Amino acid sequence: MDVQNAYSTLMEQGYVVVRGAVPSHLCDEVNRDVSRFKDRNPKAVQRNMDDHARLYRVANLHLAVDALTRLLTDNRAIDVCDRFFGEPTALYTSLYYERGSEQDLHRDTPVFATNPAERYLGVWVALDDVDDDNGPLQVVAGSHALAPIDVAAMRRAVFGDGPIAAQSPEGWTAYQAAVRAQCDQAGLSAVAVHVAKGDVIIWHPQLFHGGAPHRSERSRRSLVMHVTPKGTPVGHQDVFFEPSKARTKAGWGYYRRGSRDIARFRHVDFGHEYTVRTWWLRKP
Fold it and tell me: Which segment of the chain is annotated as a signal peptide (predicted)?
């Protein structure tokens, strides 16, 4: 991998695919450990699994399945993130999937409002081969370079003088609709990204992206890592729409894996429906 070429593609297109960034044998090891975790924690995972026993949108599973942290430490694509940040990349949070997210096209910035701004990247690691049948990532190339949305005006229109919740459906919908309108006006449309096990997709914080329909019974195991430099404060919509509320320091500590730092939290979140304390979960 040529880091400079990959970085240039990221900045020009808003995303880059780094082929074979994670060794295939490591993907197999991670998949085995997650399978063992599911077997050892039936009560924790049961409510989250679909009819095919596939997990969906599990936040920070790496805190319970430590092998997942190797997708940060043993991943050649992270060198591109280091180049983007100009300093070492750390793991803030993650999302683990066994089927496609099927999420509408969106930008991440309202829920990853860093201080300073845009000190964030999405890093998507394929743990299975992914094509049109099993929910590929969709990207709108060039959407990261569109003119900035007037967030202050949107804040007044949506919230008036009222408070802004960290997770506001009204704010989220208004912002994503405005970005979609910009993409339509510019003639930009989404394309599906096909990847093989071990490939990594990195996307710019301003990239418009989402998940295509998952049409088959095949799994689509993947880990999305939300990465920042160590110590970067991350806010949500309350900060995104009112930057004066941004913290100057991260409100969490870190632990070390290899040469990388990982934010330390105490819960694994299953589909944003329920959480389980890490110490109640049996490790693989």
Answer: none
